[in-house]
Each structure stands twice: as C-alpha cells, then as structure tokens.
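can u do me a favor
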C-alpha cells in the first residue's frame, strides 16, 4: 500500500459537479493499493499516518500529529500511484490491486483512520474526481508498506 500525504489548509473532491468531500486544516491522503496488500497494511498505514508528527508547534518544529491538532483527513483512492513508467511511455498498472480487492481495503483504511479518532471525508472509488488541494508548507510525504 502506498500513500502520498499532504498537509493542507483545505481540500475538496468534486465528481461531476457535485462536491462529495471537503475538509479544512488536515491531511489529503492519496492512497494506492498493490497486489498482495491486506487489511494488515491498511490498518498499519492508517495508524502511521494518524500519528505522523507533521504539524508545527509554536517554534515551527514538527511536534504534533493530525490527532494532536484536531485535523481532518480527505482520502482519495489512486491506483495510479502504482504506475510503472520504467519501460516505454505508457504507464503499466500491473502492480495495482484489481478494483474488487482494492475498494474494500480503501474502506478498511478509512475505517481505521476513524477508529483512531480522525474525522474523514473521501472521494468515490473508481470515479473521475477533481481534487482541489491547498497544500500547506508545502509538506508532502510518501509512505509505502513495501519493505
């Protein structure tokens, strides 16, 4: 499982002109599911992200997590995080989990974030989405459960 985590001032997801998710201060999490991922990876990654200390204290040091500052999360499934462009010019997505595997794991990830206390909004699995992100910092991290 792979996540691109961005600290944001605000973010939203719109599908066909309808706003389906919106947050203020918090984290946008672009989430990709790989072949072989399981609920274990989903729970681990959610726990890790919820406790990442990427919010600054009064001295500007990253000492607070999303939980510490009452931040929100916006989760957007994104199989393209597993796009392989090492050969040719068209990405290959053979490492991405098929939708019937990936969708329940994205939901498990969201449930795990909520279980630790985050307020979570999300896009819609498989939909074409317009994601608006006001990146704060900017602070962007890539997390991967693969060794």
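np, heres the sequence
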């Amino acid at each position: 499982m792979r996540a691109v985590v961005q600290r944001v001032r605000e973010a939203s997801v719109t599908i066909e002109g309808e706003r389906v998710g919106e947050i203020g201060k918090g984290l946008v999490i672009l989430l990709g599911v790989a072949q072989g991922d399981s609920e274990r990876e989903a729970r681990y990654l959610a726990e890790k992200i919820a406790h990442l200390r990427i919010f600054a204290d009064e001295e500007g040091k990253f000492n607070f997590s999303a939980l510490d500052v009452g931040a929100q999360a916006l989760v957007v499934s994104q199989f393209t995080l597993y796009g392989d462009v090492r050969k040719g010019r068209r990405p290959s997505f053979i490492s991405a989990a098929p939708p019937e595997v990936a969708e329940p794991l994205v939901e498990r990830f969201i449930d795990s974030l909520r279980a630790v206390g985050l307020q979570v909004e999300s896009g819609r699995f498989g939909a074409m989405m317009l994601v608006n992100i006001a990146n704060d910092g900017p602070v962007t991290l890539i997390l991967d459960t693969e060794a």
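The radius of gyration is 15 Å. hope that helps!!
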